[in-house]
Amino acid sequence: MKPTMALEIERKFLVKNSDYKRLAEAVFYQQGYLSNNEKSVVRIRIAGDKGFVTIKEQSVGLSRQEFEYEIPRNDARTLLDQLCEQPTIRKKRYKIPFNSLIWGVDEIDDNNEGLIIAEVELISEDQSFEKPPWVGEEVTGDARYYNVNLIKNPFNKW
Amino acid sequence: MKPTMALEIERKFLVKNSDYKRLAEAVFYQQGYLSNNEKSVVRIRIAGDKGFVTIKEQSVGLSRQEFEYEIPRNDARTLLDQLCEQPTIRKKRYKIPFNSLIWGVDEIDDNNEGLIIAEVELISEDQSFEKPPWVGEEVTGDARYYNVNLIKNPFNKW
Question: What interface predicted TM-score (ipTM) does this complex get?
Answer without folding.
Answer: 0.85
